[in-house]
Amino acid sequence: MTSLHLVDWAIMAAYFAVVLGVGLRLRRSMTSSDEFLLSGRSMPAWVSGLAFLSANLGAQEVIGMGASGAKYGIATSHFYWVGAVPAMCFVALFMMPFYYGSRARSVPEYLRMRFDEKTRTVNALTFAVMTVFSSGISLYAMGKLFSLLLGWNMDVAMIAAAGIVLAYTILGGLTSAIYNEVLQFFLIVFGFAPLAWLGLRDVGGWSGLTARLATVSAAQGFAPDAYTRSWALLGSAAANPIGVEWFGLVAGLGFVLSFGYWCTDFLVVQRAMAADSMRAARRTPLIAAFPKMIFPFLVILPGMIALALGAGGGAGVIPPKLDAAGAPLLDALGRTVLDFDLATPSLLLKYFPSGMLGLGITALLASFMSGMAGNVTAFNAVCTYDLYQGLVRPGAGDRHYLLVARVVTVLGILVSLAAAYVAAAFNNIMDVLQLVFAFVNAPLFATFALGMFWRRTTGHGAFAGLLAGTAGAAIHHGLSLPAGAVAGVKGGYLATMISYPSDLAQTFWTAIVAWTTCLVVTIVVSLATRPRPEDELAGLVWGLTPHPADAGARWHERPVAVSVVVLALLLALNLLFW
Amino acid sequence: MGVPFDVRWPVGALFAVLGGLLLIEGLREPAAGPINLVWGGVLLGFGAVTLALALRARKRG
Questions:
Q1: Which residue of B14, B18, B32 is in closest CB contact with A353?
Q2: Mind giving me the DSSP string for A210-278?
Q3: Are the CB atoms for A318 and A342 separated by under 8 Å?
Q4: Bridge partners, residue A336, by sequence
Q5: Contact partners, residue A482, CB within 8 Å, separation at least 6
Q6: Which among A22, A25, A356 is the nearest to B22, CB-wise?
Q7: Is B47 on the interface with A (CB under 8 A)?
Q8: Would you call B14 and A11 a contact, using CB atoms and an 8 Å cutoff?
Q9: What are the backbone angles phi and psi of residue A502, rounded to the nearest 5°?
Q10: Per CB distance under 8 Å, which residues of A are interface residues toward B?
């Protein structure tokens, strides 16, 4: 167990003081629900861009991607270079004109404007439940991590983190969350950059890392470069550690899941909606795309280094998973099962002396808090505008909605805390919940793509498509099972008709089935039902919306030009680690 | 820079303080882990540049 020194606590205290100071300073500006929930649409592009990225930097990003780096190697970068950046370019160029131009206050509200109330309600309800539970799961992961790592009391860690997030979001609303996300972005970059630098130097640079991981590859039965090449071994799912073939990866992750998240999830889209102009809103995801491309070197590389340190009989830093009796867990072949979630934190403890350790721990805390604040601010906008104003009490005064938004913020934090305790008590319940969320999310992009680019799509078609897509995902999952898994939460609960080489392969193909089902059902039902008159769709559908003009803007202010630069860099990175 | 205040003020202030704390620790315990001095200098520099940019923006109105 590592203990922190005075300087480490001082660094943490300085961070908390600034975070709370931002909330206090913004309190006077929160005079309307528009200010509290939308930042008054006043954010410069670079601020909303960094917040767009930072809101996604929760526990899953920093700890989860480090763990995946240790499990899969550089192929984990596909979650960035295939599974994020192309979708960020797409939402910037093709979808933001509708989200921002329609003046919708949330993604579900866009669905109401484009389709109907029932489609909005199903999206708003599922989104609200998902965000608050995701926030709770993240909070539980944070409490567990700091309890294991530093011996902190789990209850105190969770309640303190939730309390600080509550304080600054209730004081300054979305603006406070966005400002603190900018702060948290820089803290995460400066907290993890020296970790990758010191670790890489310790293993002998990239060539040393490659040589060490070659022995891990050989022990697993893969080609020597399986952990250090991202595309070369994707011809067969059995030939690479990630256990996926190229089509499943590109279609499942790169298209369905990636576009479903980055193009339709209000958690990130809300940051772009807070921008101060249409051009700033369109540039928001593109500004976020630059650091997003570099993040694999900050969050995946430490996981690979942690794995490499234990290669060839070296002193590994990743501790084993423990069974109920506290003994190291063994797999079917009698090998020790490593706890990959502790790869990055263990590296922090290995390389950072007091002072730097305080910075690293604060960066970890910042990642949890930015993810939680992102969830809570999106939750309170959807609950206030789409559920309360839309369904419970339309037509009340703005002061009333501002009060409701503050109450919902408290409610969101309390439900997150409750969800964290549910996760602690019943881990399997959370596995099932996350599975249901995956079923609901997978078909979403088909609904939005048809709604924005095909004027014939109807509300009945969208609603039926969403339900059919979710059912399609559940049925496919129930009929399939990854290799080595037993029927249950991993799938196969209806029958085992399809076997996949890995969990990820099953996830990607479930998403493909859900998206395709949603697309087909939406088209069929739309053709059988009456579409809305075209004059009601102006500003909501491609072809009926004037395209934003960029004439006269400098090249770096033109979304198309910036996208070309982003995609060229993306291609270079993929070729470099081919 | 309708924005309540320039976000570069809190960012610059925080990193200047963090850099200062790391520099003090690096001078106090030079044998530990020196990385504290190197990274303290980097953070202090980043904080100072960020504050200078915020100040310049305020002077320009």
A1: B32
A2: HHHHHHHHHHHTS-TTTTT-SSTTTTSGGGSTT---HHIIIIIIIIIIHHHHHTT-HHHHHHHHTBSSH
A3: yes
A4: A330
A5: A490, A491, A499, A500, A501, A502, A503, A505, A506
A6: A356
A7: no
A8: no
A9: -155, 165
A10: 7, 10-11, 14-15, 18, 21-22, 25-26, 29, 40-44, 47, 175, 179, 182-183, 186-187, 190, 194, 198, 276, 351-356, 358-359
- Calculate the CA A312 to chain-centre distance: 34
Q: Do residue A353 and residue B29 have CB atoms under 8 angstroms apart?
A: yes
Q: Is B61 on the interface with A (CB under 8 A)?
A: no
Residue A549 is classified by DSSP as P
pLDDT in tens, B18-59: 999 999 999 987 766 688 999 999 999 999 999 999 998 988
Is A422 in contact with A430 (CB distance < 8 Å)?
yes
Min Cα separation B52/chain A (Å): 17
Pick from A143, A147, A132: nearest CA to A430? A132
**Amino acid, single-letter form, for residue A516:** T
| A390-439 pLDDT, tens digit each | 989 899 999 799 999 999 999 899 999 999 998 888 766 667 766 887 88
